[in-house]
Design goal:
It is built from seven helices and three strands, in the order ααβααββααα. By secondary structure, it is mainly alpha-helical.
Length: 198
């Protein structure tokens, strides 16, 4: 009887261990390859990963833009795609800066006149665009072999981001020099720079 009990105990314990181990985790499905998404499909032409993930492996702030096949030539297409990518970068910096300043003012109780005019976001974007022209560079470019559309990855280095963010914030504060200096010395400004770089 004790042999039977020992055997039952051993079987129960091993059954418990197997149940705890459970079925193995199913392997994650592989990510589909990056393909160019212009044209009428099916989208089978393989594209570099940066086309699909906005150049997330490149340090700094990046944007991807494209321009269709044009009789004006390849250089013109690259120029137009680059201008679009720079507009996207300016919009990102402008939006992040204005949002950060709004949060800072709301949290600090600093609601002085010209309270981060939302018209300022437009002014800021125009101001930033001119700075982005000199502070950014084309990291890489490619072309869809099926449609001829050009893709560019434009980036701003981690070293140039603080200057551009400062310019955006200064515009957002307009004539409030004291508020601008206080914000620049605050944790909010450091967080803005960090957010833009990630």
């Amino acid at each position: 009887m004790s042999k039977t009990r020992s055997l039952l105990t051993a079987l129960t314990a091993s059954g418990f261990l197997v149940a705890c181990a459970g079925a193995p985790e199913p392997a994650a499905a592989p990510e589909p390859p990056c393909t160019f998404q212009d044209g009428s499909g099916p989208y089978t032409a393989k594209a570099p990963d940066w086309v699909c993930n906005e150049g997330s492996n490149v340090p700094g702030l990046t944007a991807v833009a494209s321009y269709r096949q044009s009789s004006s030539g390849y250089d013109f297409m690259v120029e137009m795609a680059t201008a679009r990518a720079r507009q996207r970068l300016a919009a990102i910096i402008s939006s992040e800066a204005v949002g950060s300043v709004k949060d800072y003012r709301a949290n600090s109780g600093n609601t002085l006149a010209n309270e981060t005019n939302m018209a300022t976001s437009e002014i800021t974007q125009k101001t930033i665009y001119s700075a982005v022209l000199t502070g950014s560079r084309v990291v890489t470019k490619t072309r869809n072999p099926d449609t001829g559309q050009v893709y560019v990855l434009v980036g701003i280095s981690d070293q140039d981001l603080p200057k551009l963010a400062e310019k955006a914030v200064e515009t957002a504060f307009k004539n409030d020099d004291v508020g601008f200096q206080l914000y620049k010395a605050s944790k909010s400004f450091k967080e803005l720079i960090s957010d833009l770089g990630n």
